[in-house]
Amino acid sequence: MVGISGSSGVILGIRLLEILQNSPIETHLIITPSAAITIEQETNWKLKEIYTLCQAYYSHQDIGAVIASGSFETAGMVVIPCSIKSLSGIANSYTDNLLTRAADVTLKEGRPLILVVREAPLHGGHIRLMQLAAQSGAVIFPPVPAFYVQSHSLDEMITQIAGRVLKRIGIENQAYRSWEGLAKSHANPQTQIMNDLLALPMLTLATIGEDGLPHATALPFVADEHSNLLFYSEHASQQAIDLSYNAQASVSICPMVAGSHDLQVVQMRGVAHLLIDPREIAAAKSLYNQKFQYTARLKKENDQKALFVFLPDWIQVIDHTRATGQPQEWQIK
After folding, report:
1. Do the beta carbons of residue 166 and residue 173 sit within 8 Å?
2. Fold of the CATH domain 2-169
3. Mean pLDDT score of the chain
4. What is the pTM of this model?
5. What gap in Å lies between CA 264 and CA 204, rounded to an integer?
6. What is the CATH code of the structural domain delimited by 189-331?
7. Where does CATH 3.40.50.1950 sit in the chain?
């Protein structure tokens, strides 16, 4: 069961549902009225779109719903995010709506209950409520980011937190990275830099038109194990038209930084072509969906687009972060 209450951070609950959508886990959803308001304010999601991510959803007033009974067996419940009001109801067994009733049932049946309490700073009353809930068996799980994974974007951080919550309740998933010990020094720093850059969400693709004029555009991408780059494009886009005439292209990947002294860049030259083989397309889509969890709800739109693979024949890594003040360059391929 998944409850989304009115605290800020509703995208965490939505992302958790996205991760579960393609799994064998059956999800039952409750969204409170306050959460519906927060969803409208903080995201571009519509309630009807969110409901498609679960197998069943209920009104918060439906206290006669099947999930209000302990006889309905579940693997547990996550309230994500959990507002202080919902925390108070759960901690004090004040079950005046379906969310707090379902949570109370989860506790009385000895099933795991995860409360992703999203509030800061905390006063003594908040801490007392968390202690009461914990004493009844709930797990208090503030959505604290794991900085050791060095997320490159807020979207990656959201996915990491949602995946970690699922892991805590006992659901294995690929949405988070576990701690693997202190990083060892790398014999080839350029390889580490390149791997970090290939984990970024966007690249800049440069193509040449039939008239010889250059064009550039930013595109979401994913890299395979051979550092080939995969990206979607509209069939009538400028880059798709250019590549139909001339497959030669170049790519630049770099993060947004405050100044040039923080800049690391990977530059590539090579060819890009349209994927046609169904097996290659399926493998590419799988990689794409793993990196961008939100693409599950864009399947229909993406199926109408062209899927390209960029095959680099020249790769250069440039690092401006060295203490010498001079950029260091490595040609990898």
Report:
1. yes
2. Rossmann fold (3.40.50)
3. 91
4. 0.64
5. 14
6. 2.30.110.10
7. 2-169
